[in-house]
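Could someone model zinc ion with this protein?
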Amino acid sequence: MYTQCPLCDTQYRISAAELKAALGKVRCAHCQSVFNALSHLTDTPPEIPHPHGKCYRACG
Ligand SMILES: [Zn+2]
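Reply:
Sure, complex below.
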């Protein structure tokens, strides 16, 4: 699965173990913002654009 920075839309691959270890909190390596990865999970790999563009928040 993947998570996506809500500020700069950079996607990161993340495992369930990593999520658990970090309690969902991750820091974006691009813009340094800390966000809850659990709130921004996606199954869409970064190299395959989401079919609906940036509506991942709404349609999951
Ligand atoms: Zn970011």
